[in-house]
Every structure is written in C-alpha cells, then in structure tokens.
Known about the structure:
Strand content: 5-15%
Oligomer: single chain
Helix content: 25-40%
Distance between the termini: 84 Å
Largest sheet: 2 strands, antiparallel
Shape: elongated
Number of strands: 2
Amino acid sequence: MDETYTSQPLSGHIVSTSVTPRLEPSVEPVSYGPLSSLAAYIAVSLMARPADAAVLAAWRERLAGRDLELVSEAVSAPQ
C-alpha cells in the first residue's frame, strides 16, 4: 500500500512523492551508538580491577545512612 503526498513549493511546481512503509524489522543506524556504548562499558568493566574491600565497605556504610568518621591529618595553615 503506497501513500502519495503532494505538495506545492514556492516555485509553483507540483511535486508528488510516494512513500512505501517498511514492514520488516531492522536495526536502524541510530541504535548503533547506544549499542556500541553498552559494549564499551561492558568491556571496560570486565578489564578494570575490582574496587578495594575498604572502598566497598565505605559505600555500604554511606548507603545505609551511617556517617563515616573521616581520618585526616592535621595540616598547619601557612602564617
């Protein structure tokens, strides 16, 4: 089933175009970007070394809503 569209541009000529709907599923080029980003994310995640146990423990504490006591060194201010 073809649909025909007719338009009249400013020049005065009538232009007629026919559009045939695509029925078969396909991968459009616009989906290549997100798919390649996902593939890169997975590849880098698998190649990266895992986080230290101390870092994971700190994140679990923060997610649980408990405050962490920060250990910092005293630094003298310049006079």
